[in-house]
Specification:
The complex is a heterodimer. Chain A is α+β, with helices and mostly antiparallel strands. Chain A has 2 domains: 269 residues, no CATH class; 116 residues, ACT-like. Chain A, domain 2 (Alpha-Beta Plaits, 2-Layer Sandwich). Chain A has 12 helices and 18 strands. In chain A, the strands form 3 sheets. Chain A has a 10-stranded mixed beta sheet with strand order 11-12-8-7-1-2-3-6-4-18, with helices on both faces. In chain A, strands 5, 14, 15, 16 and 17 form a 5-stranded antiparallel beta sheet that branches. The longest helix of chain A has 19 residues. Chain B is α+β, with helices and mostly antiparallel strands. Chain B has a single domain, classed as Alpha-Beta Plaits (2-Layer Sandwich), CATH 3.30.70. In chain B, strands 1-2-4-3 form a 4-stranded antiparallel beta sheet. Chains A and B meet through helix 9, strand 15, strand 16 and strand 17 of A and strand 1, strand 2, strand 3, strand 4 and helix 4 of B.
Chain lengths: 445, 104
């Protein structure tokens, strides 16, 4: 059987569009997946939807569809994406709108819903993971609750023959696993193949991170034509073995190093990668370079799926006020330290001292704390103060205090910036599988 | 010689935990990394960052070590006051650790 060619069109919501378009045009793809939801993306989308009932999906959805739908219609590959975010139905309508604008005919869009479990979470006071709190403690601050759906929820949509499948929260690798299960008829209890499908999805889900992005270190890891880095695709066999590659003519590289780095990215116990469809086991994965920009992947397996699904809850958690100011030249560090001491005293006077805050110097200790950079003298430093506050007004004081260092602080400070942002935080909980009801609706032109 | 001379690193986030991968450029150098980069050594190096324990998963067939650093992201990406809330830059620090001897 001919391998199934599945491409990765985005590794996050704001990712580049032209490499996805290139993949769509030249990739001879069977499926193109766009993974665009980070932890709190849905909560932020939910806030947008509360202001505008027709929004709530990925802000780049229309632009992406404009870029790839012509090739999709011409070649017949599937587009699968979680760009539905907080409003998959509106996203489905938006896709049809673009199809009409492009004068495409016969396009079918399947919308998968069911990830939104906010109502259930409000009725059941379950514990928050990694915390001693429960869902109820979030009270009115709770904005969204979305269960991570699996490939199982996407299969009915693929079975309708839809060209585009749009969802909200789905486990990222499951977006890739679903079309593989559909194509090859893998059973939902075939843990070995599902594990191998998950490793393919995991390798592709961050797009260029497997094909030369986020790895260059000049002189050690050189990446050809990084500015033109191509997005990856996998050629997957019916038994799950796969080759990760990219299109000829694109920048970047696909080799043992790039694939190992992505295989391990955000992975905890390699033997137990929890997914809605399977507990994938990457501990025996082998990567073999089989040609230029071609890496064969095999050896993943899996164990029976968990009984519960993970849920991400988005909630409001006050505000963060921040201000920054730079010092440069001889004594920059000492003047920066004096500025921090002044700010600490000012926080005390303003009554903000007790709140959680960070006072640090970019260029010295802002990334990894004081110890690691202690023996190096910077030419310039950037003082940074960030404070978590309950109100926007208090958060504004933080930047104002940093700005006041112009006239009231140490000599030679410059380049003040200040910001206030509302914090939308994310927490996790578990939900019994049977409490999540998925639906699939097909929209036609 | 430092870790940077024989390996690359990448970090990522999971809630309030940071993951750290150290990958030998040449798999032949992996045993040296495994000897030097114990979970304790890594925890000591990240003393200002990591509040919890560090687990290490050796993956000799990949020439890589995987670390999970608990309570390392100031409460997690979505609420942290840190400039690099994801802890993406954490990978840079491990490269600075001194290795005894020469690469195999």
């Amino acid at each position: 059987m001919k391998p199934f060619r599945i491409g990765s069109g985005a590794g996050y919501s704001g990712d580049r569009i032209d490499p996805a378009q290139d993949l769509a045009e030249r990739g001879e793809l069977d499926a193109l997946v766009f993974e665009c939801l980070a932890e709190r993306t849905i909560a932020l989308a939910q806030l947008r939807r509360s202001h505008d009932p027709q929004s709530g999906y990925d802000p780049l959805l229309k632009e992406r569809m404009r870029a790839v739908l012509p090739a999709c219609a011409r070649q017949g590959f599937k587009v699968i994406t979680n760009m539905g975010a907080a409003h998959p139905r509106a996203a489905g309508q938006a896709v049809l709108e673009i199809a009409r604008e492009l004068h495409l005919t016969g396009l079918r869009v399947a919308v998968v819903t069911g990830d939104d479990v906010l109502a259930w979470m409000r009725e059941h006071d379950v514990p928050l993971l990694e915390s001693d709190r429960t869902v109820r403690s979030l009270g009115a601050h709770l904005i969204s609750a979305n269960a991570y759906l699996g490939a199982e929820a996407l299969l009915p949509a693929l079975q309708t023959g839809a060209d585009v499948v749009i969802t909200g929260r789905v486990a990222d690798p499951a977006l890739f696993l679903a079309p593989l299960m559909h194509q090859f008829g893998w059973k939902a209890s075939d843990w070995q193949r599902l594990g191998q499908g998950i490793v393919v999805g995991h390798l592709l889900e961050c797009a260029a991170q497997v094909s030369g992005g986020y790895i260059a270190d000049p002189g050690r890891v050189d990446v050809p034509r990084l500015a033109d880095v191509g997005f990856p695709l996998a050629e997957v066999q019916a038994d799950g073995r796969a080759v990760i590659t990219k299109l000829e003519g694109t920048g970047g590289r696909v080799d043992r190093l790039t694939c190992t780095a992505q295989l391990l990215y955000e992975l905890e116990d390699p033997g137990r990668y929890l997914q809605p469809d399977v507990v994938a086991d990457f501990s025996g994965v082998r990567l073999r370079e089989e040609g230029p920009d071609r890496v064969a992947v095999e050896g993943a397996t899996g164990h029976p799926r968990p009984d519960q699904l993970k849920v991400t809850l988005g909630y409001r958690e006050g505000f963060i006020g921040e201000g920054q100011i730079s010092y440069a030249g001889p004594g920059a560090r000492e003047r920066g330290e004096l500025a921090l001491a002044v700010l600490e005293r000012r926080l005390e006077l303003l009554g903000l001292k007790a709140l959680e805050h960070r006072a640090e110097m970019i260029g010295v200790n802002a990334m990894h704390g004081p110890w690691l950079g202690a023996d190096r003298e910077p030419y310039e430093v950037r003082v940074r103060l960030a404070v978590r506050t309950a109100t926007r007004a208090h958060a504004q004081l933080v930047g104002q205090e940093v700005e006041a260092l112009y006239l009231n602080g140490p000599g030679g400070g410059g380049g003040v910036t200040q910001s206030v942002r509302e914090v939308v935080a994310a927490a996790s909980a578990l939900i019994p599988r049977e409490a999540v009801r998925c639906e699939c609706q097909v929209l036609e032109l | 010689m430092k870790v940077r001379d024989i390996a690359m690193a990448r970090s990522g986030d999971k809630g309030n935990r940071a993951t750290l991968s150290v990958i030998a450029y040449d798999p032949k150098d992996y045993p040296l990394l495994e000897t030097v980069l114990t979970a304790e050594r890594v925890r000591e190096h990240y003393r200002d960052v990591v509040r919890g324990t560090v687990q290490r998963y050796p993956l000799p067939h990949l020439g890589a070590l995987q670390f999970v650093m608990n309570d390392a992201l100031a409460g997690g990406v979505t609420r942290s006051l840190a400039l690099d809330a994801h802890g993406k830059t954490l990978s840079g620090a491990v490269l600075d650790i001194e290795l005894e001897g020469d690469p195999a």
